[in-house]
Amino acid sequence: MNQAISSKGLHPALTSLAAHWGWLVARGMAAILFGFLAFSMPGLTVLTLAIMWGAYAIVDGAFALIYGARGGGTRRWTYIVVGLIGVIAGLVAFFWPGETAVILVMIIGFWALATGIFEIIYAIQYRHAIAHPWAVGISGLLSAAVGFFIFAFPGAGALSLIWMIAAYAIAYGFLMIVAALQLRRWRNAHPALR
């Protein structure tokens, strides 16, 4: 039997997450905004990047926490963990922006890798759902790949890392919005949820 459907109807965790699809849109928009801001500032310093990224990670983490907390069922823990990691990493980068560039890069790398792993876990848990696991899975693979690259090459040039992080944020944001719109479409296809 499809795991997205229970014997009494729709899976309660999926229906609850579908009802809060707007939080995924907010996460996506925050990521895209950060990416475009980073691209639009070619003279971006590591200090400015730390402050901008820290603010983005806090906002993204808060949205993930809210999305996970409002979702139902036992599988929402992945978004709660992603949210906590984001808020903590953002606070570290935001309040200690003067640390060395390598430490900032490692924080961003850890955040991206951890976020990616937990989003892959979430996508696997919901692989039979009708709505959105492929978009979350692809965003998780993208996050994990960026995190792995940063750990493998922490000494890469600051400009190339800024561009990579900005491109990643834009792609990640679009995938979150796609996932949200799929959840919305799934919710609209089930009138009992409205």
TrEMBL record:
InterPro entries named among the record's database cross-references: Acid_resist_chaperone_HdeD (IPR052712), DUF308_memb (IPR005325)
One cellular component term from this protein's GO annotations in UniProt: plasma membrane
Keywords, ordered alphabetically: Membrane, Transmembrane, Transmembrane helix
Regions crossing the membrane: 21-40, 46-67, 79-96, 102-122, 134-155, 161-181
Residues making up the signal peptide according to the UniProt record: none
Superkingdom of origin organism: Bacteria
Name of the protein: Uncharacterized membrane protein HdeD (DUF308 family)
Lineage start: Bacteria, Pseudomonadati, Pseudomonadota, Betaproteobacteria, Burkholderiales
